[in-house]
Amino acid sequence: MNIQTVLIFIGLSFAYGQDRKITAKLNPGYNTYSTDITLVYVKCEGVSDTIHQIWDFTRHMPTVIFAVASVNSTLNVTWTDNAPKDLIMSEEPTYSFATAIDKIYEYDDLDDNGHIDPKFPQKPYPLDKIVWHLNESLLTDKEAMVHVYGMLNGRHGRREIINIKLDLIPFKDYAVDLPHLIHTANSTLFDISLVNLTTSKEYNASRYAIHLLLVSTDPETDTMHYTMRKSLDDEHTPGVFEIIEIKSPSLFEKGEGGYLQFRPVAYLQSTRGVASSTIARVSAFSRTSLPRYSTLKLFYSNLNTDLLVQDMFVSFGEAGDGYYKQHNYTAWSFTIGYGTPPIESFSFFVIMIISIGLGVPVVLALSGITYVLLRRYRHNNNRTRFTNED
Ligand SMILES: *[C@@H]1O[C@H](CO)[C@@H](O)[C@H](O)[C@H]1NC(C)=O
Ligand SMILES: *[C@@H]1O[C@H](CO)[C@@H](O)[C@H](O)[C@H]1NC(C)=O
Ligand SMILES: *[C@@H]1O[C@H](CO)[C@@H](O)[C@H](O)[C@H]1NC(C)=O
Ligand SMILES: *[C@@H]1O[C@H](CO)[C@@H](O)[C@H](O)[C@H]1NC(C)=O
Ligand SMILES: *[C@@H]1O[C@H](CO)[C@@H](O)[C@H](O)[C@H]1NC(C)=O
Ligand SMILES: *[C@@H]1O[C@H](CO)[C@@H](O)[C@H](O)[C@H]1NC(C)=O
Ligand SMILES: *[C@@H]1O[C@H](CO)[C@@H](O)[C@H](O)[C@H]1NC(C)=O
């Protein structure tokens, strides 16, 4: 990269407070407009690299792919009738990480503890037939956002809806909605809600779980790492102190790679709050392979690299909550990112409170000490004077 580009970029960053320059396109290279075809390509140009993001719904499985390559790299999409035919990069990415939701599971939680357990009945609902309709989109150089929804196979003649919202902003900030996850120029917020799904008659303790695929250009025999840390306060997510991170081997071992970051919390009503929250749980990882006919397969079969493919469940609920049918609604968010996961910082408000909390006693103590010292000094002085006079 030449000096000029760096200067222009730094100029841009100062002007807009952006960490990356983003360019987002809906269905690039596809000429017909249809709300049933959604593939967003976001190019995120940084000072030292460019992250190419593909958000694909055309091949049914909601998919997010991150590919990191040099500053000037490009990615082009070619099309068959209504799905990508190929995703061509100008160079082999230095790193790539992806996630996709391939199935939703309904399970009969007879132990009533929220976990999806193979010892109890369960039914997978593959998402490979769902048509995703684009409901809202905002694609500017300040934000890239899409909201799509799909009907779960139109079972039962009832509107059973899965909503998915993806959001990218080119700087670090807290998400507007609870659990107020942090998104950065290197990550994208993924929010999913399961609305009015009909539970099976033969199950009396139905809950739903999400089945996620995780892919990274790491050795096939390596593994993703689950980590949980405690935050100092629950300022941003009331009542929740834990932060869960799923780290790719590269991130875990070398400090830079793909990750998912989230809070172990889900919401049971569209108006989110502490009262409508429940627990989100992550299962262990299993090894798997790329699904056939998927955008993941399309992208990764072009690359000449190691590939780690694993999957996991995220299930929702806790004992005594009346199962899914109690609210017929579950919403959960995570961020998918590259680099190192952001850590939450104290807000100005909290810093002020802490400063006041610590400051007042310190000031009081100091003034006390000063008073005593002053008195002593005066006293000594007086005594000296007396001595002198004596
Ligand atoms: C990127 O492109 C710019 C202008 O197009 C060029 O000046 C620069 O050398 C390129 N950087 C790299 C790393 O190839
Ligand atoms: C992508 O398309 C642009 C413009 O058509 C072209 O300049 C570029 O070389 C293409 N990149 C690749 C990797 O094919
Ligand atoms: C589409 O978005 C609008 C708000 O922009 C919302 O009122 C409506 O419920 C959404 N439709 C679905 C099916 O989510
Ligand atoms: C984003 O990634 C770049 C390099 O890829 C790194 O320099 C930067 O610190 C990262 N930013 C954040 C907010 O993680
Ligand atoms: C879900 O069902 C409830 C009650 O039947 C209804 O009020 C609500 O509008 C439905 N939600 C959607 C998104 O269709
Ligand atoms: C559900 O059905 C099983 C047997 O089929 C029974 O053991 C269990 O108590 C029932 N649970 C509830 C919450 O009704
Ligand atoms: C949820 O849907 C079921 C039908 O599947 C219905 O019986 C139940 O009353 C609904 N619950 C709420 C809170 O709307």
UniProtKB/TrEMBL annotation:
Keywords: Glycoprotein, Lysosome, Membrane, Signal, Transmembrane, Transmembrane helix. One of its GO terms (cellular component) is lysosomal membrane. Residues 1-17 form the signal peptide. It comes from the Eukaryota. The chain crosses the membrane at residues 346-374. It is a single-pass type I membrane protein. Coiled coil: none annotated. It is found in: Lysosome membrane. PANTHER family: GLYCOSYLATED LYSOSOMAL MEMBRANE PROTEIN. Belongs to the GLMP family. Required to protect lysosomal transporter MFSD1 from lysosomal proteolysis and for MFSD1 lysosomal localization. Interacts (via lumenal domain) with lysosomal protein MFSD1; the interaction starts while both proteins are still in the endoplasmic reticulum and is required for stabilization of MFSD1 in lysosomes but has no direct effect on its targeting to lysosomes or transporter activity. This is Glycosylated lysosomal membrane protein.
